[in-house]
């Protein structure tokens, strides 16, 4: 009985082996580009390896009847780890983690059916792994509050997304915490009054945006608070007469646009 089982197993192995065909593709320079197995239907099966043009491993993953599934590892051209995570039915699922090409941590977050979801964290490229962005995703698009940080850990930007577009009030801060800019977005475009400040809190500029372009009268100020320039915009371009002043309030020139 054992001999019969062994013979059947050997026959099955032989048939299975014949049903598979090794696949290799090369770059023009002769370096292997990809290598793996094809099933009887000519679709990828089992483990596949892909290579950079310099011969270093690029990606390794497994296929089932032509569909990528399971753990996937991707490498930079210099051989260092780029990212890793899980794929289900050809789409990213679960947590994925990525690294810069110097080996330092870059970002981490989760996917569902190939689309980013939930909280994602992004980091600066230096070795200290300092946080740069914290933002949530829904169906692959940014959703909810964004926080962006300076390298010293202090808040740089804050605002909200809806369906991947910026909405509501957005605020930007200098590295030491002073207010730099604030204004509003509607459906991903700057709208309404925007203000920008010097680091000491003095107003630098004030004006209106319409559909992402400066419009109407804008005023710019010197650091001592005196008027620097005043004029009008239309669709982001200067129009009509602009007046320019020195930091003592003296008119320097008039420019017609």
From TrEMBL:
Entries under InterPro entries matching the protein: MORN_2
Keyword Cytoplasm attributed: no
UniProt keyword terms in alphabetical order: Signal
Superkingdom as given in the UniProt entry: Bacteria
UniProt keyword Transferase, yes or no: no
Cleaved signal peptide residues: 1-19
Gene3D superfamilies: Histone H3 K4-specific methyltransferase SET7/9 N-terminal domain (2.20.110.10)
Pfam entry (one): MORN_2
Protein name, per record: Toxin-antitoxin system YwqK family antitoxin
């Amino acid at each position: 009985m054992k001999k019969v089982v062994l013979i059947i197993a050997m026959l099955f192995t032989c048939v299975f082996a014949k049903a598979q065909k090794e696949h290799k593709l090369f770059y023009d320079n002769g370096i292997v580009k990809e290598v793996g197995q094809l099933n009887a239907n000519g679709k990828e099966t089992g483990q596949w390896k892909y290579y950079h043009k310099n011969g270093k491993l690029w990606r390794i993953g497994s296929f089932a009847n032509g569909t990528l599934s399971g753990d996937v590892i991707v490498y930079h051209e210099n051989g260092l780890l780029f990212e890793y995570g899980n794929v289900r039915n050809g789409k990213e699922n679960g947590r994925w983690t990525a690294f810069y090409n110097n080996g330092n941590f870059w970002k981490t977050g989760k996917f569902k059916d190939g689309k980013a979801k939930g909280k994602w964290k992004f980091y600066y490229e230096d070795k200290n792994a300092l946080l740069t962005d914290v933002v949530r995703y829904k169906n692959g698009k940014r959703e909810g509050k964004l926080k962006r940080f300076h390298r010293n850990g202090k808040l740089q930007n804050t605002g909200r997304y809806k369906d991947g577009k910026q909405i509501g009030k957005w605020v930007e801060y200098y590295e030491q915490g002073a207010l730099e800019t604030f204004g509003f977005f509607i459906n991903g475009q700057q709208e309404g009054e925007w203000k920008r400040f010097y680091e000491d809190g003095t107003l630098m500029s004030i004006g209106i945006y319409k559909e992402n372009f400066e419009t109407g009268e804008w005023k710019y100020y010197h650091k001592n608070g005196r008027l620097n320039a005043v004029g009008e915009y239309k669709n982001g371009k200067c129009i009509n007469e602009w007046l320019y002043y020195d930091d003592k309030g003296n008119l320097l020139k008039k420019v017609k646009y």
